[in-house]
Amino acid sequence: MAAARKRDAMGFGLAALTRLAGSEVIDRAGLRGPVQNLVKAGTRNGFRAAGAATRSFKSVRRLGKPARLAPAQDDVGLFDLTPSEDQQLIAETVTEFAAEQLRPAAADADAKLAAPEGLLTRAAELGISLVGIPEELGGAGTERSVVTNALVAEALAHGDMGLAVAVLAPSAVSTALVSWGDEQQQADYVPAFAGDQVPAAALALLERTPLFDPFKPATKAKRTPKGYQLDGVKSLVPRAAEAELFLVSADLEGRGPALFLVESSSAGVTVEAEPAMGLRGAATGKLHLEKVALPAGALLGGGKADVFTEVVRLSRLGWAALAAGTAKAVLDYVVPYVNERTAFGEPISHRQAVAFSVADIAIELEGLRLVTLRAAARAEQGKDYAREAALARKLAVDKGMRIGNAGVQLLGGHGFVKEHPVERWYRDLRAIGVMEGAVLL
Amino acid sequence: MINLEVPKKAGTLINQAYQAAAEVFRPISRKYDRAEHTYPAELDMFAALLDGLNSSGEGGAGAAGVRRSRDSAGDGNRNGANLNVVLGTIEMCWGDVGLLLSMPRQGLGNAAISSVATDEQLARFSGLWAAMAITEPDCGSDSAAITTTAVLDGDDYVLNGEKIFVTSGQRADAVVVWATLDRSKGRSAIKSFVVEKGTPGFEVVRVEHKLGIRASDTAVLRFENCRVPRENLLGTPDIDTAKGFAGVMQTFDNTRPLVAAMAVGVARAALEETRRILSSAGVTIDYDRPPQHPAAATWLELEADFESAYLLTLESAWMADNRKPNSLQASMAKAKAGRTVVDVTLKCVELAGVYGYTEESLLEKWARDAKILDIFEGTQQIQQLIVARRVLGKTSAQLK
User: Fold this and answer.
1) Alpha-carbon distance A155 to A126, whole Å?
2) Judging by beta carbons within 10 Å of its beta carbon (0-12, 13-18, 19+), is residue B398 exposed, middle or buried?
3) Is residue A138 left, alpha or beta, with left meaning phi > 0 and alpha meaning psi from -120 to 50?
């Protein structure tokens, strides 16, 4: 069992493989044996909870101090675009999952405003949250892995952005707890995210104010003798109706934004469906907070301004990675289409007007990917990444939308109808310019 | 491990290039923009220093260091000469792109020699300042259609034709001339020849007056029964229709990242200067909060495009260092950097207002210099064609 306890990023990939029966990756990587060992190890987690609807978070033994993931060490210091073997394996696994599970379910989820039955459980079993949770708290993480998280988000969004957001939403909360939670908050909540039934959870920053500035939330928090009281409304919260735990931003008595842990069962918490142009598979909703009384321990990261800033940045990085994944889906879809579609006696791809549009998609996508990866690599190495994250977001907003637009245009009228996925990608890619929160790398 | 930072070991080189750009190029930048066709004598002293840098084999700040080394030392990740040259070029062009193009022994002809010469030729032409002559009056982007001919006569090739837009065509010691051995055999018959200055029949017809990069001389050359030793044909004289154009075109995989790097350097200069100007007007850049001023929003948009071009450029050089085929990435970098530097510099003039438009500022000069970077070594449209053909899997006959 000693070997099984050393579950690292590699282990995360392996855990994923157990869910992919008959997967080619597993044979290619020669991993049948190790995978079988891990299945045995899977029962080691002491934490068990009932179904999501009736769960109450059970605190486990508190650590002496909070468990944190150390910054990633780059001892070589060379420019390098080659993912590690672990990252390669994880990206391939998630790509396969996205192709087999998310893409086929995407249209239906878009129509029904919900992920299909069982999909999110299967995704949770991939262990996506695990890599961001330290071993001491039952996870598989040894160091910050923002790049790996970016590759995962990108791969998932290649399948479907809305479902990717639904899949990633809980890890936004667990990653924040690992980074800034105190030992009590970690003991209360983190083990659930490392367990077999990952709770639905959501990072709720966004509000419906025009020209919304996440650093100026209209949601208010005031101190009470026992803790805090929250009032306000959050928008486009993924999986709002089923989420058991929210991480909510609110202005703390005029001193600026702070983050609060809010359990869905708290009095004064109500949710309301809020369907939007896209991201519909994420089952977005409004979170109403009316005189919600929170204990003193609900404040995350001591309400420090730099903690909040970092949450905003890492969230924006998540959206940049999602945009890159969906933009790649557009490119991969339009290439065969314009090669097969004929007009005036030849494939339309033989016309520069069409071909140049495809070239532009490829160029801007590659640039977006690189800028996102640079920001992610700086973040995980503990370097300043404010500039890089902002530029990644800017490109994701502008170029992502341009690519989404081009995707529909290249298919013409066929792009406008739901027979093809490009109209959904067009709607989803518009979200990048609007969204804050929800995901976090 | 994925890491997109400049390697620490390049720090010295980058700093040297920056110092040179700031202390040598910037102070004389406007002077040689105004004094078009005057040789920047200040560069001679400085060129020797660059030679020293390049002889280290780790690449310097010009075009000379782009040869693909054949040694197979190490299977791991390499940050080598290609990346170093790109990093040095970015710094130098932050100083002045026209002056970098005027640097002795850093011409694109040197890049061509580096890319396709045999070892014997490389030794023989070492220390030579070589310009590159491809374009003709009736043939630009369609470089396969060149009409300059090279006919073997005894131990010499006899060259006839006219070349235009030859950067450093007047000042360089030699010119790498593209000519066809047999016009009926198409692009595979096109070879490049090193023609040294003073060769009978080789004449500089005139030097052009230009929109920008005025420090750099751009010449029209004529070859009339110009006899060149047969050993000066770069690479192999065989007309291999299967391999086709590959030999000469290989040069571009190495020079396009360089031109992209030039664009990145100029764009960075304009962004930095504009940020300073905006800041003096009370407009600051905040990377976290929504922009408080439209000028800040515009600046951020430009910087995002800059960052994209910068990393695409590093990627293409890194791939060359690691012997990965990089034609696609080189064209992506050139396309993105070329259009970005034009957008960035023009917008920066607008943001800076009157000051940016006058000769009191270098912004208007950079906006003029920038335009050539979206044209030479393959125009924006040519790069788009190359990228599109690769992505769509099309030949040049299918996607024209």
Assistant:
1) 13
2) middle
3) left
Strands A342-343 and A299-300: unpaired
Q: Among residues 121-180 of chain A, which lie with CB inside 8 Å of chain B?
A: 147
Interface mutation target, options A73, A74, A76, A78, chain B, most CBs of B under 10 Å: A78
Query: Which residue from B77, B388, B393 is facing A78, i.e. has the nearest CB?
Result: B77
Pairwise CA distance, residues A185 & A165, whole Å: 24
Torsion sign (Cα): A210, A216, A217, A220:
negative
Structure tokens at B192: 């490049």
Task: Read off φ and ψ for residue A271, nearest 5 degrees.
Answer: -120, 155
Q: What is the DSSP string of B319-343?
A: HHHTT---HHHHHHHHHHHHHHHHH
CB A132 within 8 A of CB A180: no
Is A77 an interface residue toward B (CB < 8 Å)? yes
Beta bridge partners of B132: B176
Give the separation between CA B201 and CA A284, rounded to whole angstroms.
Answer: 76
Q: Would you say the C-alpha torsion A382, A386, A388, A394 has a positive or negative sign? A: positive
Residue type, A206: L
Amino acid occupying residue A364: E
Which parts of chain B fold into alpha helices (H)?
A: 11-20, 26-34, 42-55, 81-95, 97-101, 108-116, 119-124, 246-280, 294-321, 327-352, 354-357, 363-373, 380-392
In Å, how far are A337, A422, B286 from A412, measured between CA atoms? 11, 10, 39
Q: What are phi and psi of A91, to 5 degrees?
A: -60, -40
Among residues B231, B110, B230, B122, the alpha carbon closest in space to that of B172 is found at B110
Q: How far apart are CA A323 and CA A167, in angstroms?
A: 15
Contact: A358, B7; criterion CB under 8 Å = no
Nearest CA in chain B to A370: B311
**Integer Cα distance of A268 and A224 in angstroms:** 16
Q: Given the structure tokens 């310009």, which residue do they identify?
A: B131
Q: Summarize pLDDT for A309-351 with one digit per residue, the tens.
A: 999 999 999 999 999 999 999 999 999 999 999 999 999 999 9
Catalytic machinery residues of B: 377
CA-based nearest residue in chain B for residue A315: B288
Inter-chain touch B394–A312, beta carbons under 8 Å: no
pLDDT digits (tens, 9 = 90+) for A184-240: 999 999 999 998 889 999 999 999 999 999 999 999 999 999 999 999 999 999 999
Q: Would you say B161 and B179 are in contact if contact means Cβ atoms under 8 Å apart?
A: yes
CB contact under 8 Å between B392 and A335, yes or no, is: yes
The answer to whether residues A248 and A221 touch, using CB atoms and an 8 Å cutoff, is no
Instruction: Classify residue B7 as left (phi > 0), alpha (psi -120 to 50) or beta.
Output: beta
pTM for the full predicted model: 0.91
ipTM: 0.93
Interface list for A 85-104 with B (CB within 8 A)? 87
8 A C-beta contact, residue B156 and residue B149 = no
